[in-house]
């Protein structure tokens, strides 16, 4: 197809047809989420505890904010700021603890979805077009497999990094680093709250933001000519640490700040600013750091200074 768009890590040739594919169950993902779901149920029903609830909240906040939103998304995937290598490792490791994938798997999942959404037509799976329950099953337990996928290449510095290779190979087992201290302090109940319930809530929460942020909501900007648009979900800003400003992210994918308009709460960006204050983050990209994306049109959005 001649109108295919390539991105930094994805290279499409004539053989690639985005619509020539199907949704297939990923049994490993299915068992992983079902197992954590059962553990989550056991946590709440058999081991209710206020201390365990606080532990769950703390661990979920740290892994989603510092790990998933800042480490995986804004740093590893978009390089929206720079940080010393050891800080990057810690943040990406925290992001792995969210339980979605290792660093390579996360880059691939993010970039493939973004690539699909930049084509002139986009299949239902990466477009989040199915109704909620079906889309949740699709996103959490399935993959969209193309007959002739495009070439996917992670940059050399990441692809050949031995630490990332180790985390990628062992991303599920990385939970054990948390399991041991949790078990020592609070037994099986605390493990179920701090690992199973947290991973289950994180997976479902990630799906929910992705689903609703591609359907409807507020838009400060639009991307002309694309079949899938991003939308802002203001009410979800706190709980997603700023990731729910998804219309903004489609408009300015390179920006470390996702809440780009006045009054848009963005805790993930505040965390990046805190790192900068400590001398651990620099070269922080703003919406205007790079030329506007092709097709970007204002829908009334005004960038905060
Ligand atoms: Zn999107
Ligand atoms: Zn992104």
Strand order of the largest sheet: 1-4
Order of helices and strands: EEHHHHHHEEHHHEHHE
Instruction: Note the quaternary state here.
Output: single chain
| Alpha carbon gap, first and last residue | 41 Å
Cα-based radius of gyration, to the nearest Å: 19 Å
Category from helices, strands and their pairing: mainly alpha
Q: Into which percent range does the helicity of residues fall?
A: 40-55%
Characterization of the model:
Helices cover 51% and strands 7% of the residues. Helix 2 (50-77) crosses helix 3 (85-96). The radius of gyration is 19 Å and the shape is globular. It has 305 residues and is mostly helical. The strands form three sheets. The protein has a two-stranded antiparallel sheet. Strands 2-3 form a two-stranded antiparallel ribbon. Strands 5-6 form a two-stranded antiparallel sheet. It has a domain at 10-219. Bound molecules: zinc ion (2 copies). One zinc ion binds at residues 73, 77-78, 110, 249, 253. One zinc ion (ZN) binds next to helix 2.
Topology overview:
Blueprint: E1 10-11, E2 21-25, H1 27-46, H2 50-77, H3 85-96, H4 103-117, H5 124-127, H6 132-141, E3 142-146, E4 151-152, H7 156-159, H8 162-169, H9 176-212, E5 221-223, H10 246-251, H11 267-277, E6 296-298
Antiparallel strand pairs: 1-4, 2-3, 5-6
Helix pairs in contact: 1-9, 2-3, 2-4, 2-9, 2-11, 6-9
This protein binds zinc ion (2 copies).
